Amino acid sequence: MTTRETRIVVGGALLHRGRVLAARRSAPAETAGRWEFPGGKAEPGETPAQALVRELREELGIEARALERIPGAWPVRAGLELHIWTAELLAGTPAPLQDHSELRWLSAAELDQVDWLDQDRFALPEVSRRLTEAA
Ligand SMILES: Nc1nc2c([nH]c(=O)n2[C@H]2C[C@H](O)[C@@H](COP(=O)(O)OP(=O)(O)OP(=O)(O)O)O2)c(=O)[nH]1
């Protein structure tokens, strides 16, 4: 359950030409090397969709639009839960400017080729379904 103390971290499943962008974390040590949907914590007063647009601009240097939330909320740790939104690329080419050491565009068939953070795995079937529908 989301309480007033719970913060949301929003990850963006950026869908483009039948692929989704996966990002390899560069820090901190506990999660470095694992793959995630780029994004970050929503600031007070910011909607998750707004936070996602801001984080994708900061981390990847792109302009993107949040599309829809994938149903579900997954605890990251006490007081922090993960939401995943699909997003579309409006302008730019994603680059690992901040927080990531590598980016990969994955097709539905390639989704299990990277070592996702545990919480992100819950959203993979829905991401796969959207990639397959778009193909
Ligand atoms: N961005 C992102 N974080 C995720 C995902 N899955 C997952 O478990 N996390 C975890 C990793 C971190 O513990 C936390 C998000 O932290 P973050 O470091 O990305 O957030 P932020 O950019 O706002 O960073 P900061 O301001 O707190 O430094 O959520 C995901 O798909 N994307």
TrEMBL record:
Superkingdom as given in the UniProt entry: Bacteria
GO molecular function: hydrolase activity
UniProt cofactor(s): Mg(2+)
Membrane spanning stretches: none
Keyword entries, A-Z: DNA damage, DNA repair, DNA replication, Hydrolase, Magnesium, Metal-binding, Mutator protein
Top-rank EC class of the record's enzyme: hydrolase
Pfam family, one: NUDIX
Domain Nudix hydrolase per the UniProt entry, residue ranges: 5-129
Catalytic activity, reaction form: 8-oxo-dGTP + H2O = 8-oxo-dGMP + diphosphate + H(+)
InterPro entries, per the entry: MutT-like, Nudix_hydrolase, NUDIX_hydrolase-like_dom_sf, NUDIX_hydrolase_CS, NUDIX_hydrolase_dom
EC number: 3.6.1.55
Family under the similarity heading: Belongs to the Nudix hydrolase family.
UniProt name for this protein: 8-oxo-dGTP diphosphatase
